[in-house]
């Protein structure tokens, strides 16, 4: 595990340095190098994370392992989106996030109630929920960047230097709705499976999570409908995305932090 952690850490650092160098020196980002190295890092990250989650006592989804898994998904979806969108420069957010998540998962210790003898359906619900949360986290970050980009381009402030390093506004908006659609689809599957396999919401302390997840799901569905029907985009889309994610995060991470760290 230590070797896998070091390999993943070094690669994430190398990719981060390459991206910073390319953006500051106005050099093209080496797509093959960046994505290839990140794929190797993802394998090492998975090797590091697997024994922390799949323990002999049961599944361990404490707050630190969840953060590590979220950062793993963050990089994975970044690589997948890069295959068809010109967004390599956004790796400057993905790689450092992975460093933080990887380190939290490796060094962080938190009490947990191991999940034992759970069905495959419930396992799928948990994995899909985390995947959905991760993509929607990415969409929220993307929405924040998009809002700043729109403001800077509109007012032509002195911050145009770093804004010019970003992909075009059209690419950023297209990517945002790609992320929202993927996150919405994953969240739909997670909720559907959860309603089938979770029998007692109150006894399992997840009633509030379900309610907030459903509220976030409705907001995202409304946004996608408005984009399709009325062409919603720009700041309206960014604001709704951020709000939907905040609602989801309160239920998803907020409760885990309170139960595992504060109590």
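^ Assign residues to that structure.
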């Amino acid at each position: 595990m230590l070797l896998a952690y070091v390999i993943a850490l070094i690669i994430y650092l190398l990719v981060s340095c390459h991206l910073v160098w390319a953006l500051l020196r106005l050099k093209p980002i080496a797509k093959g190098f960046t994505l290839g190295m990140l794929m190797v890092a993802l394998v090492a990250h998975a090797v590091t994370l697997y024994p922390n989650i799949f323990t002999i006592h049961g599944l361990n989804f404490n707050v630190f392992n969840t953060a590590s898994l979220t950062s793993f998904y963050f990089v994975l979806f970044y690589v997948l989106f890069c295959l068809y969108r010109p967004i390599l420069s956004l790796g400057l957010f993905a790689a450092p996030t992975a460093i933080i998540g990887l380190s939290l998962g490796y060094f962080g210790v938190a009490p947990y109630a191991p999940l034992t003898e759970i069905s495959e359906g419930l396992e799928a619900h948990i994995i899909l929920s985390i995947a959905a949360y991760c993509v929607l986290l990415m969409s929220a970050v993307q929405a924040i960047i998009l809002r700043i980009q729109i403001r800077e381009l509109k007012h032509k402030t002195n911050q145009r230097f770093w804004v010019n390093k970003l992909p075009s506004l059209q690419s950023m908006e297209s990517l945002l709705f790609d992320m929202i659609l993927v996150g919405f689809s994953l969240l739909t599957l997670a909720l559907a499976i959860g309603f089938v396999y979770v029998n007692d919401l109150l006894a399992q302390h997840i009633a509030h999570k379900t309610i907030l997840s459903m509220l976030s799901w409705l907001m995202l569905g409304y946004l996608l409908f408005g984009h399709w029907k009325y062409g919603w985009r720009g700041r309206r889309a960014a604001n709704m995305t951020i709000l939907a994610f905040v609602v989801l995060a309160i239920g998803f991470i907020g409760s885990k932090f309170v139960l595992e760290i504060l109590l």
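Residues 139 and 179 are 6 Å apart (CA to CA).
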